[in-house]
Every structure is written in C-alpha cells, then in structure tokens.
Design goal:
4 copies of one chain form a homotetramer. Chain A has 8 helices and no strands. By secondary structure, chain A is mainly α. At the A-B interface, α1, α2 and α3 of A face α1, α4, α5 and α6 of B.
C-alpha cells in the first residue's frame, strides 16, 4: 500500500509552479508611464482568470485528497494526466492574453479547460475503483453528476462567455 | 475538518517560487566587465527590496500558521488571494528596477504591496472567524491594530520613501 | 541515521520544476489563428514525450522510496546525480522540438535519457549497499536485470525510433 | 517554540528552484548540428559547477538540520539571508558561462560563493546561540574552524583556480 502524502506534495509543487509561472507571461513593458501598462490589461485579465481556475483545481484536489485513503500506480498516472493538462494553462493563458481573447486562443483555452475537467473525472473514477463503492470517496464523487457538474458548468460557461465576446465583436 | 499542513506546503511552494523567479529579471549583461553590471544596480536593489518583503510575508505566514488550528474553504480562498498579490511582486519589481524607481512603477509597486497587506488582513480575519474570539489567533491578531500596524507602516513607509525620491528628483 | 523524508521532498520539488518548466519552451506564437500553432506541433510532441519520461522517473522514484529505510551521504549525492541528468531534459526537449526531431538533437536526447538511466542504476546500487543484501530493496532492485531492463528498453526503444525516423527521412 | 519542518520545506523549495532554473541559462541553439552546441560548452561547464555547489549547500543544510531542534525569528532571517545569496547563483553562473570564465564574471562568482559561505556561518552561529553551548549543534559546528574550513577552502580554491586561468590566459 502506497502512502498518499508524497503524491500530495508533488501535486502541490507542480500546481504551485504552474500558478506562478503564468505571471511570467506579463512581460515587463519598456515605458515607465501608465500608458505602457495598458496593452497588458488583457494579459492581466487572462492571468486572473487562470489563477482562479488553477486555484479552483488546487482547492478541489485538496478536498478530494482529504478523503483519499491510499493510492496505487493507476492513481499516480491519473494524477499526472491531470497535472499535464494543468501544465498547459500558462501557454493557453499567454496566447489568450496576447491576442485579446480572439477566437482561436479562446477555443484552445476552452479545450485545455475541458481536458483538465475530463482528467479530473478520470482521477476521481480511478480513486473510486480503488477505494470501493462504499467508501467516502464514492459517496462524495461517485453519484454521477454531483462531482462533475460544477466543473462542466464552469467550462461551458467560460467557453460560451468568450465565444460570445468574440461573436459580438465580429458582428460590429 | 481540514488539516492545515497541505495549505502550508502549497503556500511555501508558491512563495519559494515567487522569491526565486524575481532574480530572473536580472538579465545577464552582454559585456564581461564591471561597467556591464552598472545598469543592473537598480534592478538588483529592487530585487533585494522585494526579497525582504516576500521574506517578511513568509515569516509572518509561518508565525500565523503556528497558531492556526484548522482551515476551511474560506481560508483556502483567502490564502490564495494573498498568494495572488504576492505573485505580482516579480512583475512590479521588474518594472520598478528597469525604470530606476520612476513614478508610475513606484506607484504600482506600492499598490501591490498595499493589496498584499489588505489580503493579509482578510486572511487573519477569516481565520479568527473560524477559530472564535477566544482563540490564540484572535489574541494575537484580533485586537484591532496590533497585527495590522506593522504592515501598514512598512507599506506607507516605502511608498513615501520612493515617492519622495521621485519628487526630489523631479525638483532638481 | 538520516531520515529519508527531506530527500523525498527535495526530489519532488526538483522533478516538479523540471516537468513544469519544459512547457516554457512552447513559446507563445504571434498569430492568433490555427496556422500559428502548427509550427509548435513538434515542440508539443517532444513536450508530451518528456512529460511521460519525467513522470515515469517520478513514479519509479516514488516506488523505490517506499521501501527505502534510511539514507546517507552517498545516497544524497547519487540522488543529486540523477536529478542533474533529469534537469537536462528541458534543454534536450527544447532542442529536439525546435529541430523537428533531427539527428543530433535526437542523439543528445537519447544520451540524456541514457545517462539518467545510468544514474538510476547507481542510485539503486548505492541504496542496496546501504540496506544490505537481504533488504526488500535488494529483493526488488538487486536481482540483476529486473529493475534495469524496463529503463534500458525504453531508452533503446526511443533512440531507435527516432534514429529510424531520421534515417527514413534522410533516404527520401 | 517554532517547529523546524516548515523552514526545511521552504528551504528545499527555494534550493530546488535555484538548482533547476540555472539550466534555463543554456539557451536552445538555432542550428541542429553538433557545431551549434559548441558555444554552449562553457555555459554547460558553469552549470555543472554551480549544480555541485548548490547541491553541496543542500547537503550541508540537510546535515545541519538533522541536529537542529527548534528555530526562532533570528534563525528564519539568517536562513533567508543564506537563500538570498544562493539565489544569485543562476545570475552569476549565467554571466560566467556566457563570458567563458572571464575575469570580472569569475570575480563576481567568487564573491557570491564567498557571501554564501559567510551567510552559512551566520546561520550556524545563530543556531548555536539558540541551542546552547552544550548542544549537538555546537559540538558539530561550534569548535571554531571545523565547520568553517571546508567551505572556505572550496571558496578560495575556486577563486584561485579561475583567477589563475584568467591570469595565464592574459599572459599568453
């Protein structure tokens, strides 16, 4: 039986780095006045958005792991799979911010969000398989839509919101 | 009841990264003599300043968490909110250093400092609400100005100091 | 007798950073359409490949450390030696991706992989010497090829695969 | 009384990041052949050198902390002071490598090494003051030169070695 604490520590490390390197996409402007900051506003907004999303995943990971009892090889890989999609946030965020929430960057951002949500479900499912149907983890995340819905809503919400922005921009 | 140790580990990770990536703003100069280092002096000074500030926050976080007993969802988010403002230090520091402590970069730096202080108070308040009015944490941070004053003084001090520098530079 | 947990934490930190900074090699494109992403496909593929490899090492490290009982100075250095070769992954990956899996970058990548595998064997051997021939760690990793073969196969497989790609490209 | 484990975790995080971001100074070359790697050889050598030095500090930190019993505010700051000088390694290493171990970069590198050694002594001294003259930590690090000599030798050795290189290069 493997202990869970090292997996927690590794995930904390990766998520901490992801959430922090995103800020490196905000390149320091050359001018020293207020106007020099203006082009950074969309980059900043995409940073805030992604900080919230990654923070959300960390929060959920924290909650989920409270009731995890043990891990195995499948859980390690399911967790790495989640971290992989989270690791694409800095890239997707940077592209989104630099292009003022244009269509394709928005679509890519939505895609990464969506895949992270899928990876989350796979992780939850793998943990439930390991802990059994009567475990607290199955109680909390098993009954089909309870654990899944919020993330799907967030994902869809964001895709729609941005797409909408783009569509309305395209119309005028 | 959630345990506090993972929140500590995550905060340590984020603060460790913040304090370390600031050094990346000191771009390696092309020349190989002493003169090539000279333009980096203000960048270095802003790095030292920010290292001290972020170190101060880590120290305070460490002290605060010694007497924290448990956490909940609100504390997680209040802590993420603090980490968000701290994560803007590398950017604010880089802009400050590259522009030799000019007015707007100084103002932005002061603003980030100020918001981090605000986030700190919100975090302390959230923890007090969770632990109750008779808890050690309320003793140490609750009586209104005790826990707040140092940070406000630091913040105001620095803003005044820099502003002053700029004003005096502007006058001559 | 030294405890093993700090060595775990440090290794987790280094591996978490390695796996995450590789993504920084995917430079954000200037265009905002689908075509702008196309040149990034080989960079992305090399990132996926390296993510899997580094993930594999983290997994193996995790498994190995489960049965490690104690560490000494030699183990610390053998572990640092492994981390050194892993730390060259971001560079080797970036060069590989930017040059579309050309011959020399592929050879360098294979060399880094190979040296990491060698470092892994040295680490396992150092741990076995410390724990004795009857320890669980000698059981699991000592009988000559059991612990070594998978990694050697991976390494050779990848070298052959890439070399092959290049040879076939060179022929046509 | 403060516990020591969080200070360990934070130091591990910072040192792990320092040792890993140094590799980012090895910029990926544009060519895809062996010749493209050649200009990187001095950068690589300086990376290896710094990896060993930072690894040495981590090892020493690990050993020191094994016998540390408790920490206080002074220890926190003495430790941050050490981390500050270590955090200048990536910059000093990059400048050294890019300028093929020229005189001024070598001098700066030696200076950073020297200051890190000083910071180490201050940290050891602060810990001894806290633990008392009869503590294991005073036994191991207190008798004046025992704990200090190795580092001073390393430092002087390296400075002499490099300076020598430069002097001999200047003579011919």
């Amino acid at each position: 039986m493997m202990k869970k604490n090292r997996l927690e520590a590794f995930s904390d490390g990766v998520i901490a780095i992801i959430i922090t390197i995103m800020v490196l996409e905000m390149k320091i402007p050359h001018g020293d006045d207020w106007a020099a900051l203006k082009p950074l506003i969309p980059v900043f907004l995409s940073y805030v958005l992604s900080f919230i999303y990654v923070g959300l995943y960390w929060n959920n990971h924290h909650h989920l792991w409270q009731i995890v009892d043990r891990v195995n090889g499948s859980v390690l890989w399911a967790n790495l799979h989640l971290l992989f999609w989270l690791s694409l946030f800095p890239f997707a965020t940077g592209w989104l911010g630099e292009n003022h929430f244009a269509m394709w960057p928005t679509a890519l951002y939505g895609f990464v969000l969506f895949m992270a949500a899928i990876a989350w479900f796979i992780l939850a499912r793998t943990l439930i398989r390991l802990h059994g149907k009567d475990s607290p983890i199955a109680e909390a995340y098993g009954r089909d839509w309870k654990g899944k819905l919020p993330l799907l809503i967030y994902t869809s919400g964001i895709i729609l919101a941005f797409w909408n922005t783009w569509v309305s921009q395209a119309l005028y």
